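Async update (no meeting this week)

Hi team, since we skipped the sync, here's where things stand on the single-chain job. The sequence we agreed to prioritize is pasted below, unchanged from the tracker. I ran it this morning and attached the output directly underneath so nobody has to dig for it. Comments welcome in thread, and please keep replies under the output.
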Amino acid sequence: MANAFTDTSSNSLGGTVGAAGLVQKAYDRLLEFALRSEPLLRSVADKRPARQAIPGSTVVLQRYVDLDAKTSTLTETTDPDAVALTTPTQVVITLNEYGNAVLVTRALELFSLADVDPAIANIIAYNLADSIDQVVSTTLSGGTNAIYSGSATSTATISAASTIDSADIRKAVAKLRANKAKARRGSYYWCGIHPEVSHDLRAESGNLGWNFAHINSDPAVNNVWAGEIGDYEGAFFVESSRLPNEKAGADQSALPTAPAVSGVSGAFTIVVANGAFGGRAEVGDKISGTNVGASAKITAISVGETNTTLTVSVANSGTVGTNTLTVTPVTRVFDTILCGQQALAEAVAEEPHIVIGNVTDKLMRFRPMGWYGVLGFARYREEALYRIESGSSIAAL
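Output:
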C-alpha cells in the first residue's frame, strides 16, 4: 500500500509525491579506470644513436660487416694478400611526431562530481605508453624472417587450426642461434607473445610441451620482467595484448549456419544463442546465402547474457528471400616475436611527455592537455629477429 513515504507517482511539478521525493541517489565520487596492461614492447629497443653528428629528420646508423673466416694455412715465405673491408651497411630511422590531446573546459571542472585533472592526466599518460608500444609492435612485425605455424605456408593460409607449438619456438631459437644473434638475458632470447597464442602453447600436451618442462623447473627462479610467464626452449616469454593480430588474407572454413531470414535488405540483425558460432564469429566475417552479395559481412557484434546479436550488412544485395545464411570467418593472424640484442633501434629527438597547453580562448575556458614526442624505430639486425605467425583456438566473440 502506498503512503506518504513510499508513493513515487509524479506530481504536477515533475517531482514525486510524498516524502519519497526527498530521497536522492548517492554517487561514488571516485571514477574507476579500465584495467590496463603494462607497456612492455619499447623495452626491446636497445640500440640507440651515439655521437650523433647533427640534428635531422632521419638518423643513419651504420654497421661494420665482418670479414669472412680465413681457414687456409699460411706459407712461411709468402706474404698473404690484404683483404678489403666491406662497406658498412646502413639502417635509417625516420623521426616522426606522435601525440594526442584532449580539451578540458572550465565548466567541466566546476560541475563535475569528481576531480577531473588527475584522472585526465592518468588517461593521457596511459594513452602515451599504449600508443608508442603499438608503434613498436608494428615495426617488429615487419621483419623478413617469418615462420608459419601448422601447415600454413603464408599469412593468407593461416587458419584458426594453425596454432603455435613448441616446435615453432625451437625453430625460431635455432634460427637465431644459427644467425649468431646474441641472446638478451644469459642464453635466452626475448619472446613477445599474445595471451591467446600463449594459451595454445601452454595447452600443448605430451612430454615435449610447455607444461612438462615447467613441472620440472626450478621454483626458486624469480628473475622476471613485467608480464613474463616463464622460460622455455631457449627464450623467456612476455605476454602482451599489443602483439599484432590482423585478419588473414583469405576466408577460412565456414562455421555453423546462422538462422533463416527472409524479406530483408540493407542491414539486419541475427540473434543466436551464445556459443552458436564456436566462439569465433568476429566483425568482418563474411555472410553468404541465396541472393546475398559478395560484400555481405558482420559489421557489429553485441554479446548478452544468453544471446549474441550479429549486425549484418548486405549492401548491394537484393532482398534476401527465405534463406539460411552461413557465417564464414576471416581468421585472425597473431605475431609472436623472438629477438636477440640489437634487433630494434630507436632514435629520439624529443622524449614523449605530458603537455599542458596554453589557454588561448577569450574567456579562458578551454585548457588543452595531451602528450607529444618525436622519435622513430627501425629493425637494426634482421638476423636477430624472427616472427612466428599463427592462429588461435580461442579467438573469441
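Quick observations from my side:
The CA atoms of residues 82 and 197 lie 52 Å apart.
The helical segments are 106-111, 116-140, 166-178, 195-202, 210-215.
Reply here if anything looks off.
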